[in-house]
Every structure is written in structure tokens, then in C-alpha cells.
Amino acid sequence: MHKVLIIGATSAIAEATARLFAEDGDRLFLVARRKARLEAAADDLAVRGAEIAGCEVLDVNELDRHRAVLTRAEQALGGIDVALVAHGTLPDQQLCQASAKLTVEEIQTNAVSTVALLTRLSELMERKGKGQIAVVTSVAAERGRQSNYVYGAAKAAVDTFLEGLRQRLYKVGVGVTTIRPGFVDTPMTAGFEKGLLWAQPETVARRIHHAILKGKDVVYVPSFWRWIILAIRLMPRRIFKVMKL
Amino acid sequence: MQGAIRLHWRDEQLPEGRGPFLSYGNGRSYGDSCLNSGGTLVDLRGLDRFISFDADTGVLRCEAGVLLSDILGRFVPKGWFPPLTPGTQQVTVGGAIANDVHGKNHHRAGSFGHHVRRFELLRSDGSRLLCSPRENADWFAATIGGLGLTGVILWAEIALKKIEGPAIEVESLRFSGVKEFLELSRASHNAYEYTVAWIDSLTPGPGGARGLFFRGNHAAGHHAVAPSRRKPGLPFTPPVSLLPRAAVGLFNTAVYRWPRRRRAIVHYEPFFYPLDAVPNWNRLFGRKGFYQYQCVIPQDQAEAAIGEIIAKVARAREGSFLSVLKVFGNRRPPGWLSFSRPGTTLALDFPDRGRSTLALLDTLDEITAEAGGAVYPAKDARMKAETFERGYPALHRFERYRDPAFASNFWRRMTSGDT
């Protein structure tokens, strides 16, 4: 049995992944912003076989509550084997361009809060000397594009942070998994036309679950995004800057 | 064209100004009762959470978008089974209520609505109604079999039943003619929980259509049985049907003649869901597709009317390989627009050959209506409004309970003559 902390537990990707932990009979502690939805997710996971150690309502932007929530989670679970950090929003790029305030808020939610959480979390886990931290970033982290660069920049900050954290925690036996999803059909992306590249949360969840249990460093979900992103990264800047991406 | 929105949480509301709406489950209805041209489908597959399960009583509360396959996957290993199941596990709980589906145990268990203890209905005006046989009983009866038109079912409570394992003990018997089928049904209904018959609608024998009668029970004790192996299925729709008449004739003869063990112990999947093993089996019919036709005939008329329908179909040489007969039980239907009712039901599918197929189906409607029967809306794409009205006398009462912002292609076809 694993003891799993999930932050952003009502995100579609987190919920689908949590179901796989539940089916294994794992012990879960769930954190999310909206109480009714958090409870709906928890009830479902309990029927699916999870042992729910606790639920906590948290807006991740309340940075000064992080320590208390993490401590409560650790106590309720009896130690943290896996911490999955999956909260996030998808900023409206156009609105962000017209508002520095909104841009900063989005960076707060998608980068600052995550970095703060990870700092406290890594402290806890470093002390225990075991466990796996898994964080959902995005393929958007790998190169800024005009259609989505506020989100991309926030995810890139987290992604780079994780790269360093992985090196630091490797020595003490704590693993760090960076999860880079491509297009996933979730409430966050409800407004988009869906095409061939889109994946269902259940599909990406299977790969995420596997990667966490295997202690993988970086996974693209679905896996074909590795090659798409490689092509995008290799594109000369002269060409990239005139593209519509 | 139709738009769609997907609900993910029970606390959501329907958006304003996007109607007419139609509740949409997993889209397994055969006809146009799950289509809403020019409107918005309210896709409920995002409401796929379990809410609670009582391991003493078997009462399961879950959101409306939970699939029967989710319930089976989670609860069969724990010794529980749905109170009844239609011929596919790819239906949602909400869809099973909205079509008041039935199964091979109708003679014992009635229809799905009989096992629904409560549900919550979300209306387009934002109100939420808790419905049960005692609370809002009129809304309860309108929504069961209500084709997703009374609002959105958010969650429901159903009672699962105890089983010892996934195995079904099944017996198969050859028969010839409707009379023999009815006798077999009568003789089997006390000792067998599940009964159904397959008939060869292409080759009527001297005493009427030949067929195979299946009867079964959940097997006691432990048996090593394997679920269906998934066949490759059809990745795309072939331009023409892969089921030409001659091949279906041979197939039906082979099914009838094939030496089979009279008694066998099988996994519940091949017993209840033979077609689920072939993904996209509907594409076998090619781009033109097919019509399903299912009617129910009151028992005193059953032998004559069903015999007549089968004879008409055989003469027209329009039938196909899926023809199913079943005698329903005598429980009062739970919904105002429930299809299953005391009598015998016949389900057939017809490759779409255009006008000749439609003309034949109109003839079958007449036979059904004359005998005091009804045609199943969940499988219909072409019946006349008049046929529907005759089969569903509570229609006018139902209309007052339909959410004014809800409609479907089927509903428009039945009430205003357009599609």
C-alpha cells in the first residue's frame, strides 16, 4: 500500500490517476480548492477501494497555509510515499496580454504556489529519505509560443525547478517525476476543438501512475509528444518566430 | 449540427441560452432519441463518480454518467451484480433510467426503473428535484423512460444483487415456431432467472421460424470462466455492407445447426454482451447502416402477431442475423413512457435498403398497433407519431413534465412532424 498525497485532487488528470491508486487499495490524502468537489472525488475514490486518510480544502495561493496542510497530510497518512502536485489553471493568453495583474496572478497559481509547495514538501521528504514527488507541468513549458506563453512560462519555471530539485534529492533517495502532458480533454480545455492529438484523462493517467511507481524522471503523456516537442525545439529561431503556433 | 457541453460536477448548472438541451449518456440508443439537431447535448459522461456503496444491502449511489461496465468491473469481484442488464455494458446509469431498459430477467426483475430507489433531477430553470416512488413520485415516473427530456439526472441510487461469482449456468434448446417458444418460456420462467431466444428471421421452417432458446442462472460456487476476448473490430465503416443476404443466411443456418453443448458454464460477458466483444460491430452494415426494430405484443395476441411479423420479414427477405424474442413479466411498468410491459417482445435488425425497408417496417407497426402493442423509442428512427401515441397513452400527461428547454430529434418527429 502506498501513502499518496494529491494536491489539485479535483483536476481531471489527478482524479483519473487517483482512481488507479484507489484500485490498488492505496491510502490517499486529497487537497483541492472547492469543498463540494473535493468531497465528490473523495467519495468516489473510497468506493473504488482507496482508504481516504483525509481531505483538506486549500487555495494553493494561500502560501502561509502550506506548511500546516502538508504536516496534517503527513500525519494523517503516516508518512508520504508519493506526492502528486497537479493543480493549475489555463490562463486566457489574450486577457493576460492586456493585464499585467492577471498575468502575475496566473504565474502565482501555476508557478509560485507550486514552487512554494515543493520547497516545503522536499524538506519533509528529504528528512524521511524516501518517496517520490510527481508534478504535472506541460509540453508548453518547452518553448514559448505566442498563443500560450504565460502558461508556458509558468510551467517552464516549475519544470526547471524540478530539474534542480531532482539532482538535490537524488542523493537522499527521493525521486522527482516531471509529467509533461500534451493536449488532454479535460474541463480545463473545454473550449478547444479536439483533434487527433488529444488524449483522454484515463489514458494519460495510466502512464502517469506507471511513471510514478517506476520512479521515472521525465515523462511525456501521451509518449508521442516527446517527438513533437523535439521537432519544435530543434526549429531554428529565425523560422520559429514567424510561425503561428 | 448540434453542440455539446460536458458536465463534470453535480454542482454545475446548465448554461443559459444554449437550448434546446438533451441529456446524453453514452450514445448507444439506435435511433434519433439521443440526437438534438440545432440544440445542445448535455454530455453526462463526465459525471462518472461513485458516491457510496452499502456492502450490507448492495445499495449503490452513483453519478448518472457511470457506465454499467464500471459497475461490473468494480462490483462483480466483490460478489455483486446489477439487478438487470441490457445487451451492452456500454450504457450509463442515467441512460438506463431514461430508456427504462430491460434484460433477460424481465420476467423476474421487471425493468431498470423498478430498481431505482432515488435520483436527483436538474431542470433548466436551475431547480433540483429529489425523486423517488414517494418523493416527487410524478417526476420519478415521468423521468423513468422519459428519454432524457425531463431534465438531467445527476445521480441515482440502485440496488445491486448478490452473486457468488462471474459464472452463468446456461442451457440452450432448439425450437421451431413461436408457439414452441412461448411454451418453453412458460416452462422456464420459474426455474431460470434469465431467458431469451434467438430466431432465424430469414428461414421460416414448417412450424414457423426456427431458433435457439437460452435459459440461465448465476452459477453457484466458483468456476474458472474467462471474459470475452475482444475481437479486432472495425476501425472504419466499409462503403458497403459486409453482411450480404446470402452470407447471413449461411450464418444463421450455421448458428442453428452448430453442435453445441446443451448445458455450459460461461462468463457473464459472452452470455449478456456477445456484441461488446466486437468493437463497432454496427459498421458491419456499411455506410447505409441499419434499422433496429423492437416491439412488444400483449400476451394474448403474441403468438398470432409475432408469427405474422416473422412471416412478413421472412417473405420480404429483409431480416438479418440479430433477431431476439423474450417474454416479459407481469410487473406494472415503472415509468409513464416505459416500453417493457406484460407481453412478448421481438427485436430485429434490418439493413437499410431504402424504401422497401421502410415500407416493411410500417407494416410491422400496423401489426403491432392492431395487437395493442408498442414500438421501443430507444431503437426507433422512423415510426409515425400516430404509432407512438397508440403505444404510449400517457404521452399527454408526460408532455407537462418535459422540461420546456429540452427536446430531441425523436421528440420533434413525434410531436411536430419534423426532424
From TrEMBL, chain A:
It holds the Pfam family adh_short. It comes from the Bacteria. Keywords: Oxidoreductase. The keyword Zinc does not apply. Belongs to the short-chain dehydrogenases/reductases (SDR) family. PANTHER family: DEHYDROGENASE/REDUCTASE SDR FAMILY MEMBER 7B, SHORT CHAIN DEHYDROGENASE FAMILY PROTEIN. This is SDR family oxidoreductase. It comes from Mesorhizobium album.
Automatic annotation (TrEMBL), chain B:
The lineage of its organism: Bacteria, Pseudomonadati, Pseudomonadota, Alphaproteobacteria, Hyphomicrobiales. It comes from the Bacteria. Residues 1-163 form the FAD-binding PCMH-type domain. The keyword Flavoprotein applies. This is FAD-binding oxidoreductase. It holds the Pfam family FAD_binding_4. It comes from Mesorhizobium album. Coiled coil: none annotated. Belongs to the oxygen-dependent FAD-linked oxidoreductase family. Keywords: FAD, Flavoprotein, Oxidoreductase.
